[in-house]
Each structure stands twice: as C-alpha cells, then as structure tokens.
Amino acid sequence: MQTPEFQGTHLFDRLCWAKENLDGVQSDYRVVYEDSVDECAKILVPDPNWMACALQGGILPPVQVYWELAKDEAKPDFVKHTRGHLLHNTKPVEAMTEEQAIEYLIMKDCPQHVWRNWDEGNKPKMVICRKEQLPGTREWRNAWKITEELSVTDLAA
Amino acid sequence: MALGKIKADTLEHSTAGSLDTQYVVNGSAKAYLSMDSSGGSTTTFFGSFNTSSVTDVGVGKYDQNFTNSFTGANYSGLGIAHNNVNVITNVNNTTFGSYAAGASGIVLYNGAGSAYTDVDVSTAHLGDLA
C-alpha cells in the first residue's frame, strides 16, 4: 500500500492512518541496556504498530526531531513544547529495514548517554539481541545485568 | 490519496443540546497500551496506539514511550491492572517524581503497596499533543 504524502500532516493523524491500514509487526529484537550501575538492565521492546510505520516509510519524522524536542525539554524553564510542529512538518523518513528501525528506536527511546557511549568501558552498556536470548522467565528480574563475558571488542568484530 | 475531512466546531443533537467539538478532541485518549508483563521474560503487546516502545525497567516498572509526544508533562495517565494490583502512571521511573512529555512511567504494586509486581496492565493517556 502506498503511503499518502504526509509532510505537513499532524503525526497523530498519520498514526491513525497507519492503525487503520497497516498490520502490526512484532519484532523479535530487544535492546538491553544499563544506564546506571546501581540498577538492573533495562529492556526496550519495540511496539508492533510503530514497527509497521517504520517498515512502511513516509510516516515517522526523522529521529533528529525528537532530539530537538528533548533539548527543549531539558531546559530548566521548560513548561510546554513550542516546536511540536517539527514532528508534523519535517519530511518523514523513508522505509527502513527492521535493523534500521531498531537503530532509530534506540536513538529515540534510549538515553543518549547510553547509546552515544555504549562501547566506552570494560563491557558494553547496550546490546541488541533476539528475544530468545533473554532469560526464559522473569525470575530474579531485578538482578539482570549484561554479562561480564561480553567485551566491546567482541561485539565490534 | 486524499484524507477525508469533516470540519465542524459544534455537534448539535435535535433535542438534547449541542457540544463543542473541542470537548471531543480534548477528551479523547491520545495514547493507549495493553500489555502482558508477566507471561514471559519480556513484554507482549495486546494492543497499543501512539506508542513507539515499552521499556521494561524491572519488576513492576515500565516506561511507555510515545511516538507523538505530549505538549508537556501535565497530561493525565490512567491505568488498570489484573489481580487487584494498583497502577500509577505518568511517573518517571528513573527518578520518581519528575515527569516527561515523551514517555510515561507505569508502576504496578500489590494491594498492600508493599511490593512491585508484574501483571497484565492497560493504560490510557489524555492531554494535549505537541
């Protein structure tokens, strides 16, 4: 199905169109990351409807738009967004592969200090894996950590 | 493809009065999520809208990340869970007490409030979008 020309259309309206016309795609990819040494590993699970939008193309704004909004939100005097139009008026991104979509999602929904510095340290702060590679149950969930056996060099190779 | 559009400021009933369409716009949920957080090692989605991902923060703690952010942090999050579990939404799971326009924290704790727990949960969020 061809995506309508959506630049200038409110993002919410685009999502309504996608919900009506696209089937959800549940990715098997998961992103495991640690943003604090005192906390357990967090697991990012992609939403099926969002993934359908990413694979379809022409719906989602460039990820840089979210960074701009995040900058505004980080200001101490932030009350409300005044640049929300960036979400709606910026040219939407083309269709992505599932892997590209996961990279986009990491840059949107994971803390920047994690994904920008994922390989600085003795072990990676972030790992992309398949669902099957996670523990089978949630037993000891609050103690989950990225294994010490993974090295940044191994992952890069 | 053109999108169909009806423009109206007011809805009027033949006998029961009229309603400003802004009430409809403002009163509609802008994001929802229904998920299983207990069936396996990670979250399974039953249904969702305007959600890009869910972050599993730990037992009974999740972040719902929005595709279209809210205009600020003063939106309303509603939640309901199975098994007499209480739900708090619109909290920031990292710092408890601060809020974010682009994500809403979901906290699930047992009826006594003494422990976090994982159960099926549904949320709806209302407010103004960015």
How would you portray this structure in words?
The complex is a heterodimer of chains A (157) and B (130). By secondary structure, chain A is an alpha+beta fold. Chain A has one domain. Chain A contains 7 helices and 3 strands, in the order H-E-E-H-H-H-H-H-E-H. Chain A has a 3-stranded antiparallel beta sheet with strand order 2-1-3. In chain A, helix 3 (63-74) packs parallel to helix 5 (98-109). The longest helix of chain A is centred in the middle third of the chain and has 12 residues, at 63-74. The model of chain A has no long low-confidence stretch (mean pLDDT 93). Chain B has one domain (17-126). Helix content of chain B is 5%, strand content 47%. Chain B contains 1 helix and 10 strands, in the order E-E-H-E-E-E-E-E-E-E-E. Chain B has one helix at 21-27, and strands at residues 10-13, 17-20, 29-36, 44-49, 51-58, 61-66, 76-81, 86-91, 103-109, 121-126. In chain B, the strands form 3 sheets. Chain B has a 4-stranded antiparallel beta sheet with strand order 4-3-10-7, with no helix packed on it. A 4-stranded antiparallel beta sheet of chain B has the order 5-6-9-8, with no helix packed on it. Chain B is elongated and about 50 Å long. The chains are: A alpha+beta (157), B mainly beta (130). The interface between A and B is large, with 49 and 37 residues.
